Structure formats: C-alpha cells, structure tokens
Amino acid sequence: MKSSLSNAEVNNLRSELFDTVYETMENGALIHGIDYVEGHSIAGIWHSSNRVGDDFLKRREAFLWILEQLLRQGRIKLHKNGVFLDALIETQIEVLRQAWPASVKNSGYEDLYWWFFDPECPAGIAWRQEDGSYEIAD
Asked: How far apart are CA 114 and CA 93, in angstroms?
C-alpha cells in the first residue's frame, strides 16, 4: 500500500532538510538539516523521516523521498554487501518500497530499525567523501 506525501509535506521536508541553513562553519560551509545525519547508516535516514509525524506509511514515503533526493544529488549510493546498485534511481527506490516488511505496521519502529541491518533489506547506504569515493555506512 502506497501512501503519498502531500505537496505541503514534501515542501516541509525540503525546507527542513535541504534548504534551511542551521549553522555556518568557521570555513564558511553551510550546515543543512540533512548534514546532521551525513555518514550515518540508512537507519539514520529513517530517523529523519519523523518530520511528517507518526503515520507509519507517511514516514516510509518521507524516508524514500529523502533517499531519492540524496541519490539525485550524488551524496549517497545504495549498495548490497558492498556492491553498488546499478539501476535507475526510481527502480532502486521501488525495490526498497516493495521489500518493506509487511509485518511492521504503525508500530514496531524498533523492529524496523533492525530490518535495515537484516539480510532481507535490499540495500544500505554509502556516503560520498570529499575525494569522490563512497564510504559504506552500514
């Protein structure tokens, strides 16, 4: 079952995570909301999805939307056992959506957290480093 995000929810996610500057570093680098989870595992991205509230399906869609934005920006790659997924971004996102555990519904957030590290989860994330390489985070 797919639960779409409203335009307002997408705009809120974009603003809070990608557009709003929360800090400016001494070197002039700007820190956006998403930067606070940079380098974290895929479960850290799941945590960021709580900005749309507690509705589990909305959180799933927010999580997938965030991943898609990071993929499009080239900030992350999805991998399975260290091998980067080689498919269109839309396909990668759909693979995650289809694999979403049916047994976790509107509760069991802790169970979902562990699913990201289970062999059944189709992907983890790797973050792009300053030198252009990618470091696997989970």
From this structure: 19
120 within some domain: yes
Q: What is the CATH number of the domain that holds 112?
A: 1.10.3510.10
d(C-alpha 127, C-alpha 135), whole Å:
5
**pLDDT tens digits, 53-88:** 878 888 899 999 999 999 999 999 999 999 999 999
- The count of structural domains within the chain is 1
Question: Is residue 52 situated within a structural domain?
Answer: yes
Q: Please check whether residue 1 lies inside any domain of the structure.
A: no
Query: What b/e sequence results for 41-71 when a residue is b if at least 16 CB atoms lie within 10 Å of its CB, and e otherwise?
Result: bbbbbbebbebbeeebbbbbbbbbbbbebbb
Low-confidence ranges of the chain (pLDDT < 50): 1, 106
